[in-house]
Amino acid sequence: MLAMDVLVEQPDAVRRAIELKAVDLDLDQLLALHGQVKALLGQVEELRRERNVLSKQTASAADDERAALIERSRQIGGTLKEREPQLRDQQAQLDQLLLLVPNIPGPDEPIGRDDDDNVELRRWGEPPKFTFQARDHVELLELHDWADLERIGQVAGSRTYALKGAMVRLELALWRFAADFMEERGFTLIDLPSFAREAAFIGTGHFPGGREEVYQLDEDLYLSGTAEVGLNYLHSGEILAASDLPIRYAGFSTCFRREAGAAGREMRGLVRVHQFYKVEQYVICAADREESARWFDTLLANGEALVQALELPYRVVRTCTGAMGAGKVRMWDIECWVPSQEVYRETHSVSEIYDWQARRSNLRYRDEDGTVRFAFTLNNTAIATPRILVPLLEVHQQADGTVRVPERLRPYLGDAELLGSPQE
User: Fold this and answer.
1) pLDDT tens for residues 171-218?
2) In whole angstroms, what is the distance from residue 393 CA to residue 140 CA?
3) Closest by alpha carbon to 227, among 187, 245, 200, 207?
4) Which CATH number does the domain 4-98 belong to among 3.30.70.100, 1.10.287.40, 3.90.1700.10, 3.90.180.10?
5) Which H or E run includes 11?
6) Could you give the residue numbers annotated as active site?
7) Most CB contacts within 10 A, which of 17, 74, 143, 260?
């Protein structure tokens, strides 16, 4: 959510953000409603003030004046009885519209409608050139009986999976590696529930839009698709001290998304599933754009370092305005190379949000001057499984069907250098 002052003072910039992010919102309607609320609030406050004055006058008024004062107070009470509900209704309408207002994207971010308009920033590593008939990750999983991708459908339906044997150990190793990595860099590990209240989803900006991607448990509980939802609302309503910042969390949680997009061979196996696990980087920092930019660079560097440790070729992509999401000032993706598809696929997204989420979540701190401000928030993936298994298995496969374990990951797998038995 943007501050109302921004909408009033910079309507052209907000209108441009609405256009660039393809948000269905009439800013003129919102501003008109704001004017009505402001005017009605002024009337209500003036009536309340007058009634308070009359109350004091009535107590000391002469008998011949008291009746007139009481009658005027009664009239004001009747008017307030009409206008206060109007004010509440109009304010509620305005609040709902404000939730739809997107953040203003950074001036240097690429303008576009979808992923085709993203801009590659840099690459790291060389995609492997196999001298043998390479397998895709599904074939590798089936070759070694490392997963059940068919039978599990009888239990949980499509886009589900059941890892087995060495893949379970590999997944656990990845979580532990990411957790150790983040803790070494000063992030506090935190294990969160997989569900959250509606207010928490509104706080991150996943609601009111995006409901179609979320599983609902009951009237006010939903399954979360990222630890960001819980982390962003954890300190809601508090006023943190400036000395508390920055807060750095590495949140671990089971995640759920409906993933209603189209299926196809490129989406089979572990590429896009309903349940997955993430170690999520999350930062709350002071409301300073230079500090926010430094944390953006840090979160991106953390993601790149993790992928480099896994020895996966990747590229960094600057996400265009139409694909970055409503709340983002900027979002850059790390995309790892998937040999079987000969494409880079997103494994990490680092987002800079300023105070857009904090205003929705009432996430505040008191600065050194004693002023209460809304904090800035940022987030990025550390590790998401099973998605990272797709490039990891395919990039490190050997001619005999085994999979090489990256050196940094070996201590978490009993110093194993290879997974799987050689196949003829």
Assistant:
1) 999 999 999 999 999 999 999 999 999 999 999 999 998 999 999 999
2) 8
3) 200
4) 1.10.287.40
5) helix 11-20
6) 257, 272, 346, 349, 387
7) 17
